[in-house]
Write a structure and sequence with these properties.
By secondary structure, this protein is mainly alpha-helical. Helices cover 50% and strands 10% of the residues. It is built from 7 helices and 6 strands; from the N terminus they run ββααββββααααα. Strand 3 and strand 4 form a beta hairpin. The longest helix is centred in the C-terminal third of the chain and has 28 residues. The radius of gyration is 23 Å and the shape is elongated. The chain starts with 8 loop residues before the first strand and ends with a helix.
């Protein structure tokens, strides 16, 4: 339970500020009041420096299990910013990632795959005038880099395998009904699921090496 403004966790960006708190469903209104007092203090600070908050760009979302979110349905869990009442949203965008209330990432995955298909449709117009190496580079730059940000392999959208197949068809100029399993090896591409796993493992290995290097540096006399 949050009982004072110091329990609000801030997260600052260059042009954005996030406030977060946690509680059980029965104490959700207490969190709202604490957030309101914290925002009021920020608004007073801004006014003293001739700045103004923009409530129209403020968003509110509750994260939790489906059971707890259903318990909040009958409770007023909105937050007032000045004269504006901000109602909870089902999803918000945070640094380009779409977060939903249940943190299933389904909406973000659908958005990323839709963007990838859009770029692929545009690239098809140039398919016959580009060589294979150029098509390969375009797919890696505009599509595969986006596909690697959609989540862990267990949360992949059902459209992802279709997207991977379309990438191969475009790069190799195959017909829609051609098999891509054998030709996939010629591109040296991992399937999307394995590619994401490889990327996550690479990031974790880099993080471990950085931490180990920092520890070794601190031990030097």
């Amino acid at each position: 339970m949050i009982d004072n403004a110091s329990s609000v966790l801030p997260h600052f960006f260059a042009d954005d500020t996030q406030l977060s708190g946690f509680s059980s469903p029965r104490n959700a209104t207490t969190v709202c009041r604490v957030l309101e007092r914290c925002v009021d203090d920020v608004q007073v600070w801004c006014s003293s420096r001739r700045l103004q908050l923009n409530p129209d760009k403020s968003e509110l979302i509750w994260f939790g299990s489906q059971v707890n979110l259903e318990r909040l349905a009958s409770t007023d869990v909105s937050v007032r910013v000045g004269q504006t009442v901000i109602k909870p949203s089902d999803r918000v965008r945070d640094l380009g990632v779409i977060l939903d209330s249940s943190l299933s990432m389904r909406q973000h995955i659908a958005n990323v795959t839709s963007t990838c298909f859009f770029h692929l449709r545009r690239l098809r117009r140039l398919g016959k005038v580009l060589d294979r190496d150029s098509r390969n580079r375009l797919v890696c730059a505009f599509i595969l880099t986006h596909a690697l940000t959609i989540a862990t392999p267990c949360l992949l959208d059902c459209q992802t395998p279709d997207l991977h197949r379309c990438n191969v068809l475009f790069t190799l100029l195959l017909r829609p009904r051609d098999h891509v399993t054998a030709t996939l090896m010629t591109l040296h591409w991992l399937p999307v699921q394995q590619h994401i796993t490889y990327k996550l493992c690479s990031l974790m290995d880099d993080a471990r090496n950085c931490i180990q290097a920092s520890i070794n540096q601190s031990r030097l006399p």
